[in-house]
Amino acid sequence: MESIKMKKSSQVASIFDIAKDTVLFLLLSCYYLLESLFWTLVPNALRPMKSLEGDVVLVTGGGGGVGRQLAVKLARLGAKVVIWDVNEQSLRKTSDTVKDEGYHISSYVVDLADRNAVYETAERVKREVGKVDVLINNAGVVFGETLLELNDTAIETTYKVNILSHYWTVKAFLPDMIKTKKGHIVTVSSVAGLLGTYRCTDYSATKFATVGFHESLYTEIRAHGHSTVHATLVCPYYINTGMFDGVTPRLMPMLEPDYVAETMIDSIRKNEVNCVMPGSVRYLLPLKCLLPAKMCWDLMHRVMKGPQSMMELRKKTQAA
Length: 320
Ligand SMILES: NC(=O)c1ccc[n+]([C@@H]2O[C@H](COP(=O)([O-])OP(=O)(O)OC[C@H]3O[C@@H](n4cnc5c(N)ncnc54)[C@H](O)[C@@H]3O)[C@@H](O)[C@H]2O)c1
Known about the structure:
Number of domains: 1
Membrane topology: Multi-pass membrane protein
Family: Belongs to the short-chain dehydrogenases/reductases (SDR) family.
GO molecular function: all-trans-retinol dehydrogenase (NADP+) activity
Helix content: 40-55%
Bound molecules: nicotinamide-adenine-dinucleotide
CATH architecture: 3-Layer(aba) Sandwich
Number of strands: 7
Number of helices: 11
InterPro entries: NAD(P)-bd_dom_sf, SDR_fam
Shape: globular
Distance between the termini: 74 Å
Largest sheet: 7 strands, parallel
Main location: membrane
Strand content: 5-15%
Order of helices and strands: HEHEHEHEHEHEHEHHHH
């Protein structure tokens, strides 16, 4: 009898606890929604943005389209820019562009598909430049073939560069960010990481993985109380860098790399958790879960002509 009474009172306490937390959550949600609406309406020029002056900012894939734009813009903001790339020539081109403007930049040739090379280069950066404050995992590859045309090495390369390298770089740099109570991990994904894309079974899958990586990492950082270490997920639509050469999207033109880099830096400086470009894409995404699958396919195939435009993607050389 006594134990039944105790069980009942503990059940009542637990229901009371859930009710209390729910009410608190609802009250806080009103505040979060108003806060978000307020900051959406305030122009960037009027809102507090974190300064990156003097910060060590590492950009992977810094030799290429968006990476190069990021390097130049970050240097102009006074950051100590470090770029990594597998392509020595394009790395030099970015370095020269930054140096021509009178800024300093450190560059490292590294193949992100090689885990040991990533760890070794990370140690060199720590020794030669210092603690990395902002890590931008930007490098990416796409082969743009259907599953049956993709060779196994190409699939493995896509996974190694587009997602596995994020584990190695974050493991190398996050501990110091936690120790110094200052850091920011930026994960460059794609709209193809939110919506499966034709000729992208490898690319889309790795970009979906980056979304899961960012969201899980974010929960670990928050749950362990490291509130001064930030994480931003960046999901851009097609960008005019040559990565998707030949593709002409039907409804929206490709984004320019200059705009993408600028928006990404603004997002980092605002400590935003998610950055989808263009913002309008965010309103289309829930349709994927809400509408019947046949309707989604018709929207994609008939109206947007997504697969048809990806059929025009110029062939890339697959790793042997
Ligand atoms: N271009 C687009 O349409 C588009 C759209 C959405 C998201 N993205 C993503 O944005 C990021 C930047 O794309 P981008 O258009 O500037 O690409 P890009 O091809 O112009 O540049 C990518 C850079 O990564 C480097 N890289 C490739 N493999 C590497 C490796 N193994 N080790 C080191 N560096 C390597 C390349 O040499 C290149 O300089 C990528 O993650 C990409 O997936 C691109």
